[in-house]
Automatic annotation (TrEMBL), chain A:
It is a multi-pass membrane protein. One of its GO terms (biological process) is amino acid transport. It comes from Thermomonospora echinospora. One of its GO terms (molecular function) is transmembrane transporter activity. It comes from the Bacteria. This is Amino acid/amide ABC transporter membrane protein 1, HAAT family. The keyword Hydrolase does not apply. GO terms for cellular component: plasma membrane.
TrEMBL record, chain B:
The lineage of its organism: Bacteria, Bacillati, Actinomycetota, Actinomycetes, Streptosporangiales. The keyword Nucleotide-binding applies. Belongs to the ABC transporter superfamily. Keywords: Amino-acid transport, ATP-binding, Nucleotide-binding, Transport. Residues 3-242 form the ABC transporter domain. This is Amino acid/amide ABC transporter ATP-binding protein 2, HAAT family. It comes from the Bacteria. GO terms for molecular function: ATP binding; ATP hydrolysis activity; branched-chain amino acid transmembrane transporter activity. One of its GO terms (biological process) is L-amino acid transport.
Length: 291, 252
């Protein structure tokens, strides 16, 4: 039973971690937390579940979904983020504008698609069929999701040390200082939104077979991703993935040990407890490691 | 050579400020290729505002800035950097969490020839500041003030700019380190670099500079050769004040 909890925790935790990594990508050049992230992921899942894209070979379908969600995210940057930041880079108007964009997406999805949740099959040769190895039960698709989440974080680590990643860190540290070195924060912001949007699309594609794809799935992912962000530390991709796993395991344990249906309560209680003990989340540990 | 060629920077009628608050009023000056041009004046005289307007961080309310004959008024800072004018702001403004090596690489951000010249330029900067070569993997925030200033200058030199705007390079540094920084600025001039130097250490700045201007309440109070400015007794008493007297005493 413990093994089942760990498997479920790691798999769903990987999704929460990926949501939070998406927050990080968009936050870096803008200091904005994108409240539309959950609905962007929902769009990704629904494109797989309810449009002809889902019928394409999986690799092509995933690429199409990532491209479409990336473009929607860039549109969000154009209408809901950059105009607000142009007025004042310290204002918090983006809270309302990204939330408004989120509601627009949810509303549009509600009109386009039925609110009947639909199942999406995992891509061949992966399946949801549960295997048992040494007493641990898991499916090949579950393994793939965890591996992909780790690979995404590892890839972003590499990107972080590239020239582009260095420039992004410079913009995050001192926007005007970066401009004086010839770095255009607006251009980097656009690239970050494209990348973060593509990741949201990928997260939706990955989530579709695990969760039922539905037009209402966005809010739960947003909030759990936000919990992973708070616990893992904003800006720290490894931290938020680990935090996603921790919260995923706690949630799975809650479903088993408390009553089923109360797992969200257990998850958020655990998040509050962790933040009470470590106000900076797990991140304090990471910072000490760096210095 | 025409006057246009000789005047690398031509600022005319430049007024600017923060929001609705005007700080500098109708400032005129020109800087010739290869000169060190000092901008001196007391606290709040508008020196930093002047530099920030030239480098594009602030938009002028009126007037113009020309760089090598091109009108760069109202350009974005990143475009002005690409055009060969680099502004090292007060306090260095290095990036927390970036190493020395990463700072130097960023110095070539968007430079068209960066792949070809990166190694050679890095070597040249390390020749100029050997301490940077020893601390390539150190984070900027753990460097000493002097090392940070050298990194800021080294980063700017990666791009081989035509003009360097240096805002208070001496701030927070020990006197012996200041001497070293000023010696480097002096050496850069022999490589054909043009420098606009903002300094509170008026005596030292004027000793280094070819020409300069005195800013007071956002207006040009006096302008001319550095030697004339340093000698002007009225200026010394009225505007350069204790700082100049103090610098003089140190020299003697």
């Amino acid at each position: 039973m413990i093994a089942d909890i760990l498997v479920a925790g790691l798999v769903f935790g990987s999704l929460y971690g990926l949501v939070a990594v998406g927050f990080n990508i968009l936050h870096r050049p803008t200091n904005v937390v994108n409240f539309a992230q959950g609905e962007l992921i929902m769009i990704g899942a629904m494109l797989m579940a309810a449009t002809p894209i889902g019928g394409l070979p999986w690799g092509i379908a995933a690429a199409c979904v990532m491209a479409v969600v990336a473009i929607v995210t860039l549109a969000e940057e154009r209408v809901a983020v950059t105009p607000v930041l142009r007025r004042s880079s310290h204002a918090v108007g983006w809270v309302i504008t990204t939330l408004a964009f989120s509601l627009l997406l949810a509303e549009a999805a509600g009109r386009l698609w039925t609110d009947q949740p639909s199942t999406v099959a995992p891509p061949w040769p992966l399946s949801m069929r549960v295997e048992e190895v040494l007493g641990v039960r898991f499916s090949s698709y579950q393994v793939a999701v965890v591996v992909i989440a780790v690979a995404v974080v590892a890839l972003l680590d590499v990107l972080d040390r590239s020239r582009l990643g260095t420039a992004l860190r410079a913009v995050a540290a001192d926007r005007d200082g970066a401009r004086l070195r010839g770095i255009d924060p607006a251009a980097l912001t656009r690239r970050s939104f494209l990348l973060g949007g593509a990741l949201a699309g990928l997260t939706g594609v990955l989530a579709a077979p695990l969760l039922l794809a539905s037009v209402t799935m966005g809010l739960g992912l947003l909030i759990k991703g936000f919990a992973a962000l708070a616990v893992g530390g904003i800006g720290d991709n490894r931290g938020v993935l680990v935090a996603g796993w921790v919260l995923g395991v706690i949630e799975a344990a809650g479903a088993v040990f408390a009553s089923p249906g109360s797992q969200s309560v257990v998850l958020f209680a655990a998040m509050l407890l962790i933040l009470l003990i470590r106000p900076n989340g797990l991140r304090g540990l990471a910072v000490q490691r760096h210095v | 050579m025409t006057a246009q060629d000789e005047e690398l920077i031509a600022v005319s009628g430049l007024s600017s400020g923060y929001g609705a608050v005007p700080v500098i009023h109708s400032v005129d000056f020109t800087v010739r290729t290869g000169e060190i041009f000092a901008v001196v004046g007391g606290n709040g005289a508008g020196k930093t505002t002047l530099l920030s307007t030239v480098s594009g961080l602030l938009r002028p309310t009126s007037g113009s800035v020309r760089l090598a004959g091109t009108d760069i008024t109202g350009w974005s800072p990143e475009r002005i950097v690409a055009h060969g004018l680099v502004h090292i702001p007060e306090g260095r403004r290095l990036f927390t969490g970036l190493t020395v090596a990463e700072h130097l690489r960023l110095g070539l951000w968007n430079a068209p020839n960066r792949r070809r010249v990166e190694r050679e330029r890095t070597e040249r900067v390390v020749d100029l500041f050997p301490v940077l070569g020893e601390r390539m993997d150190a984070y900027a925030e753990v460097l000493s003030g002097g090392e940070q200033q050298m990194l800021a200058i080294g980063q700017a030199l990666m791009r081989e700019p035509r003009v360097l705007l240096l805002d208070e390079p001496s701030i927070g540094l020990a006197p012996v380190v200041i001497q070293r920084v000023f010696a480097v600025v002096d050496r850069l001039r022999t490589h054909g670099l043009t420098v606009i130097l903002v300094e509170q250490r008026v005596g030292q700045a004027l000793a280094l500079a070819d020409r300069g201007l005195v800013l007071r309440h956002g207006r040009v109070e006096a302008a001319g050769s550095a030697a004339e400015l340093a000698k002007d007794p009225a200026l010394r008493v009225a505007y350069l004040g204790a700082a100049a007297a103090g610098d003089q005493r140190i020299k003697e």
